Amino acid sequence: MGSENVIIGTTFVLYITAMLAVGFVAFRRTKNLADYLLGGRRIGPLVSALSAGASDMSGWLLMGLPGFAYAAGFISLWTALGLFLGTYLNWRLVASRLRRETERFDALTLSDYLERRFSDKNHLLRLVTAIVILLFFLVYTTSGLVAGGKLFSHVFGLPYTAAVILGALAVVVYTSFGGFIAVCWTDAIPGFLMIGALIVVPIVAMIKAGGVGTVSEALVRVSPHMLSAFRGNDGQSYSVLKIASDMAWGLGYFGMPHILARFMAIRSPECIPRARRIATTWVGLSLLAALAVGFTGLAALPQTLADNETVFIALVETLFHPVLAGICLAAVLAAIMSTADSQLLVCTSVITEDFYKTFCRRDATEDELVNVGRISVVAIALIAMALALDKDSKVMGLVSYAWAGFGAALGPTILLSLYWRRMNQKAALAGILVGGGTIVVWKHLKGGLFDLYELLPGFLLSLLAIAVVTWMTGGRTSDVADGGTPSEQPLNED
Question: pLDDT category, 308, cuts 50, 70, 90?
Answer without folding.
Answer: confident
